[in-house]
């Protein structure tokens, strides 16, 4: 079965560099084993990265032992839906690529909230 995005279309790639995704295939595809629901394709900002670091998830620091390059503003990354929602409530939600955000994100986030933070074309 083809993975679907939050708009009902075929799930688009999020990022190959840095390589992202639960399956590290560049897509925000998620399955039942992914308890974090890494389904939101987000564009990193300095404000979001600082917020994430302040709540215990440092996404900026490289962790080569885990094959993690560390993220910079402008990078696209598959975020946990709950972390994105937490950042939205706190006022730090990064923009999202709706075509690359898997439909599973809607288990946690209202579509209207994602649409309000959609990447400008």
Brief synopsis:
It contains 3 helices and 2 strands; from the N terminus they run E-H-E-H-H. By secondary structure, it is α+β, with helices and mostly antiparallel strands.
Please give the radius of gyration in angstroms: 13 Å
Tell me the helix content: 10-25%
Percent in strands: 5-15%
Mean pLDDT: 95
Major β-sheet, in short? 2 strands, antiparallel
Q: What order do the SSEs take from the amino end to the carboxyl end, as H and E?
A: EHEHH
- Spatially, the strands of the biggest sheet line up as 1-2
The coarse overall form would be globular
Structural class: alpha+beta
Low-confidence stretches: none
Give the N-terminus to C-terminus distance in angstroms: 28 Å
Number of strands: 2
Number of helices, counting only DSSP H or I runs of 4 residues or more: 3
List the topology elements.
Blueprint: E1 40-43, H1 46-54, E2 76-79, H2 81-90, H3 111-116
Antiparallel strand pairs: 1-2
Q: Key terms for this structure?
A:
single chain; 121 residues; alpha+beta; two-stranded antiparallel sheet; 3 helices; 2 strands; 21% helix
What does it look like?
This protein has 121 residues and is α+β, with helices and mostly antiparallel strands. It is 21% helix and 7% strand. It contains three helices and two strands; from the N terminus they run βαβαα. The protein has helices spanning 46-54, 81-90, 111-116; strands at 40-43, 76-79. The protein has a two-stranded antiparallel ribbon with strand order 1-2. The model has no long low-confidence stretch (mean pLDDT 95).
